[in-house]
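R.M. (postdoc): so does anyone remember the format we settled on? I'll just put the structure tokens first.
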């Protein structure tokens, strides 16, 4: 149980990195500022129930998105607590990491429900990820989700609201069907 991080715990807590951890940062696998995110997670370890694994963090505009895996879900307070501890990095959003684009999109676009995720091939040979949701995401969330999905999947992303038939058109169709059945005597 606790917090699992990809770098050595002693290195992250002390701020002095061993050659192995230093090489992972030098290679670009992790950034220097991510060590601060990992340290903040370790500081909060006693308040986190279950196991939380740090995956990666990305800077999106002036914000930081932290991807975690969790055995029991990610606590709601964790993003707020990290934002307070790392306020000079910007607002911190904690997102549950999923390998599949649908799960990741669902985590990013909540409370909008992801109806489906399709991959379309364009004439130039590139691909685009089409994410269809049942309602318009909150302002700012859509653009941030597009950028994050592009970073993670490496594909351009389009988010569309899937049209649902309005109740009135369904009622009209029912009346039409009833009228036809009445004329046929059924």
């Amino acid at each position: 149980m606790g917090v699992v991080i990809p770098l050595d715990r002693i290195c992250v807590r002390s701020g002095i990195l061993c050659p192995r951890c230093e090489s992972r940062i030098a290679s670009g696998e992790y950034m220097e500022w991510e060590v601060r995110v990992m340290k903040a997670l370790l500081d909060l370890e006693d308040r986190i129930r279950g196991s939380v694994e740090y995956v990666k963090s990305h800077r999106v505009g002036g914000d930081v998105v932290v991807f975690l895996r969790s055995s029991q879900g990610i606590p709601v307070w964790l993003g707020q607590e990290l934002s307070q501890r790392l306020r000079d990095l910007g607002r911190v959003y904690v997102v549950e990491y999923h390998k599949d684009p649908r799960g990741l999109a669902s985590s990013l676009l909540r409370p909008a429900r992801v109806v489906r995720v399709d991959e379309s091939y364009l004439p130039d040979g590139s691909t685009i990820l089409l994410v269809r949701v049942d309602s318009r995401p909150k302002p700012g969330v859509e653009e941030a989700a597009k950028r994050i999905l592009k970073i993670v999947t490496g594909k351009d992303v389009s988010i569309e609201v899937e049209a649902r038939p309005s109740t009135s058109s369904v009622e009209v169709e029912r009346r039409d069907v009833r009228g036809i059945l009445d004329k046929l005597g059924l």
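R.M.: ...and that's the designed sequence above, right after the tokens. Also worth knowing: The chain has two domains: 1-97, 98-164. The radius of gyration is 23 Å.
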